[in-house]
Specification:
This protein has 216 residues and is α+β, with helices and mostly antiparallel strands. The chain is built from 5 helices and 11 strands, in the order ααβαβββββββββααβ. The chain has a 5-stranded antiparallel sheet, sandwiched between helices. The protein has a two-stranded parallel ribbon with strand order 1-11. It has a two-stranded antiparallel sheet with strand order 5-8. A hairpin with a 5-residue loop joins strand 9 and strand 10. Helix 2 packs across helix 3.
């Protein structure tokens, strides 16, 4: 089964390394631009909107309409100057996120993950990083949040091919953060009540630098 899965990786959109993980560091500028230029930037949905607080529906149709959604997500991510964006952050109930994010070595990663699942790491591989975290759906707010400094995600690419993605540091945080979104969790849900209140205060006191959908 493992060998079959590895073979399947090679029919995907991105090449894979010897361990079957996607190589998402090549032609980043060209790939991101190709998506973004076909897309239309949409306003960002903010905390309080119901679509952000429930598990999204699986992606089962990878056709033209879905490809346009991914393009719109890349366009929206660029407008908001983000490093990752989940579909529900532009109000769409689908399990897909895009990313354009550097890792700890400053290497750029660009890709699409549908129906992601975080791989549970053994205790000996869980080294926590308590850096600040922010979210486009909680604009202008930041708080320290401990997450593992390495992450692996399994899922599908934008054409439905099985993929594995891994990252370190900031990119690992991005993979965990965006996967959380698609299961109805914001990073502030992982904070203490006091820290969450402070993050929401930061958001209320400042103006977002990109268009958002106000909650009625």
């Amino acid at each position: 089964m493992a060998q079959q899965d590895t073979d399947q990786q090679h029919v995907g959109v991105l090449p894979v390394d010897d361990e079957g993980y996607v190589i998402d560091t090549e032609d980043c500028e060209e790939r991101e631009a190709a998506w973004r230029e076909r897309g239309t930037s949409r306003p960002i949905t903010v905390v309080g909107n119901p679509v952000l607080h429930k598990e999204c529906a699986d992606v089962t149709d990878f056709g033209e309409e879905f490809q346009q959604l991914v393009a719109d997500m890349f366009a929206s991510q660029r407008t908001a100057e983000g490093v990752g964006l989940a579909a529900n952050q532009i109000g769409v109930d689908r399990k897909v996120f895009v990313y354009d994010c550097p890792d700890d070595e400053g290497v750029r990663h660009v890709g699409v993950v549908c129906n992601p699942k975080l791989v549970e790491l053994p205790a000996e591989r869980r080294r926590l990083d308590d850096s600040n975290e922010g979210c486009l759906s909680v604009p202008t707010a930041y708080a320290p949040l401990a997450r593992p400094d390495y992450a692996e995600v399994t899922g599908q690419d934008e054409k439905g091919n099985p993929i594995k993605v891994r990252g370190t540091g900031y990119f690992a945080r991005c993979l965990q953060h965006e996967t959380d979104h698609l299961y109805g969790y914001l990073y502030i849900d992982r904070l203490s009540k006091r820290e969450r209140k402070d993050a929401l205060r930061q958001m209320a006191e400042n103006e977002p630098r990109y268009p958002v959908v106000p909650n009625d």
